[in-house]
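Dear colleague,

Thank you for sharing your sequence with our group. We've completed the structure prediction you requested, and as agreed, I am returning the results in plain text so they can be pasted directly into your records. Please verify that the sequence below matches your submission; if there's any discrepancy, let me know and we will rerun it promptly.
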Amino acid sequence: MTKRIFLGIGVDLKLNDLRAKLSDYNKQLNWIPDGNLHIPLNYLGRLLHQDINAVGMTIKTIIEKYHPFTLKPQYLETLYKKHEESQIYLSLAGQVDILNELQKELAITLDEVAAQPKRYFPYLTIATLKKTDHETTKQILNKISGLDLKLNIDEFLVNKVTLFESLFHRDSVTYQKIRDFVLESQ
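Please find the predicted structure tokens below.
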């Protein structure tokens, strides 16, 4: 049996203040549950159990070269998607150069498992916009983008990368942790 696998960074943030600031849009938004918040790194596709173990060994050798680093949510952003749910996400600041370097090294190695995108953009999706007609979707996204919100979210430490399985349910997706890869302390 195969599992749909991806590599990401689990993020433990409480977004109650931000949710309250966006409460006017709650009827149109599907908030990502706190336990599902993550920064995606690499999609690996559908893998058999034995392939997951082999890929895990490769990932471990790369991750062990990196030390913990910090990231900070910077801006609230939106992304319009014509054929999928549009996204509300947080752009990231802090030691993003380390994140980019880590993702690139993983992508080069994991390209044999599943084709990796040529460009990487780190982000943290916090909500998706329920599908409506294109004009309404664009209007809501423009309103959210136009808000002058001050994010009061602290920086956070990235000290592990996680291999996740995507589990699809009738109306949602959840992510189950398969394995953590710890970044070596300095």
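Summary note from our side: The chain has one domain: 2-182.

Kind regards,
the structure core
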